[in-house]
Amino acid sequence: MNGEVSQQLSAYWMPFTANRQFKSAPRLLARAEGMYYKDVNGRDILDGTSGLWCVNAGHCRKEIVEAISRQAAEMDYAPSFQMSHPGAFQFAHELIRHVPDGLTRVFFANSGSEAVDSALKIALAYHRARGEGQRTRFIGEEGAYHGVGFGGISVGGMGGNRRQFGAWVPADHLPTTLNYEHNAFSRGEPGWGAHLAQNLESVLALHHPSTVAAVIVEPVNGSAGVIVHPKGYLKKLREICDRHGILLIFDEVITGFGRLGTPFAGHFFGVKPDLMTCAKAITNAAVPMGAVFANGAIYDTITQGPEHLIEFSHGYTFSGHPLACAAGRASLGIFERENLFTRAAEIGKYFEDAAHSLRDVAIVRDIRNLGLMAGIELHSAPEGVGRRGYEALVGAFERGVLIRVTGDTIALSPPLIVEKSHIDQIFDVLRQVLRHLK
Ligand SMILES: Cc1ncc(COP(=O)(O)O)c(C=O)c1O
Question: Strand runs (DSSP E) across 355-426, as ranges?
């Protein structure tokens, strides 16, 4: 790092980062192409995490770069309230060809957090429009991450993300389905635990189902360390929601856009949610964007009343931003041409075998995987959670591989263009790193 940059580290208050520790030994990336970053010293860093679960088609794709620059030169911005631009309609129209059946309407936001809060509001507005305004509660799941808005942290199930703020939207939670006794080292969907969906009936009985607006889940819990739900679990949640007139929201901010080997997790699990949130890979991460996909009935129910009045009082200055739509459309073109929506199914078995090859490392407690996602959970060091995870992150980075850690769980989610040689490199480096951890 050059001297000028090191002088400038103090002003930027970094998100979800141990700021003081980072600034004492910064990891700064400067360039990216395909599967690789280069750090500020010109070192190649293999991207084992698609940035932050988002650069699914690989970095700096020419078509996307060109589409963004063309759009920026042609029209930088168009107001999003009572005005729009053709690209937003075209992108929405193209997107709905790829999502689970029935999700025919797209509401644009700028991030996963905004998409989640928008989806929660759509659920409330839908029930109010049907005369069931008493449905104000949400049911989330322990271990789920739904972003950092007040809605998202309330329905989310990661205690650390509420500790400083509380939880302000009425929500209760299902227990996690993570179970070491029955499911440790499962490959793909664990076979044990579909019956755990019955916990939803218990939580509903406590609050009365008629007070619940929606159940929200991540089809695979990504941020909590790749927790794959037991086979059949999500189908059962769907059945219970249907029985009680409760909406089911899939938060596909991570699982969407090919991560599991199908376009969306709804396809993989054979479950149709009523609402689905996306972000991250929707533009291949080149421009921030989030989106809520809604079924037609929800849109029709809310879109009523005098035609000159706004039907849903919610939205963002940058909803459907021209640059995001241009990036998203170009990215979708790459996904279609290169079959990236299903690429993880082709290479997933190789990735799975590579991940599970670490099972013999003494400090490995569990390995979980689905598609091109894997979680390698380490036994925590005696002094507590987090030290081994952090050292694994730093050790892998020093050896030229970018991984992600949550506590002591390593999460891997390489770009969908990953080749076997990259997978070998990721796991060779991890083996070296883990062997040296105390
Ligand atoms: C499932 C899920 N939902 C929501 C979010 C929040 O997205 P963002 O960071 O874009 O607000 C994330 C981010 O990782 C996520 O994984």
Answer: 364-370, 373-378, 401-402, 404-406, 409-412
